[in-house]
Amino acid sequence: MARRKEHSHQEIRLMALDAVEQLLTQEEYTSLSLRRIASQVGYAPSTLINLFGSYNYLLLSVSARVLGRLLEQMQLVCGQTFTSGEQQLLALGKAYAEFAHNQPQAFRLVFALHLGPEEPLPESQQQLIAELIGLLEQQLGDLLPNLSSSKLALASRSFWSSIHGLTGLALDDKLFSQASWLQLLTFQVHLWWTAMQQEEGACS
């Protein structure tokens, strides 16, 4: 193909990532293929394999970009001032859910992509996940200072799991409720925060 010499490797990588994200605004990631993405950027599939290592790693690079943007949204919330711990957690939950609703297929890719047995998760991806969980753990540590580090680790994952589960059900329209996802999220955060305050009280 004539275009092979027109771009650097980094430019081709960015073109491929942009192409995947553009396709994800219109369809599910499971309907994509290496050949389609290569066609979008004007290079052979083998070129993309040489640059990314595998088709899964190409998708994982997209996943990393999406996860990075999600982390930025959560960090913005953490920089704000709230009147209560419950309001702060609700804001974090809303930011998470709204991000998912604004780009549902890209969000699904982050958590649905499965690597092969000979495709280890890169350290950069592990770091992003650790930063997201660490962000929640830090916020909860400030709100619940009497909890031990081990309980904070459990609490951060418990909170994330509850918000992620509700968000996923809402995206799939499987809440089976007349209440909106925001009403359910608000109630869920209230119950979780109340329980955690009681847990912290027992630790003091």
UniProtKB/TrEMBL annotation:
It comes from the Bacteria. Residues 10-70 form the HTH tetR-type domain. The keyword Aminoacyl-tRNA synthetase does not apply. The keyword DNA-binding applies. Keywords: DNA-binding, Transcription, Transcription regulation. One of its GO terms (molecular function) is DNA binding. Gene3D superfamilies: Tetracycline Repressor, domain 2 (1.10.357.10). Residues 33-52 bind DNA. Pfam families: TetR_C_33 (PF13305). This is WHG domain-containing protein. It comes from bacterium 19NY03SH02.
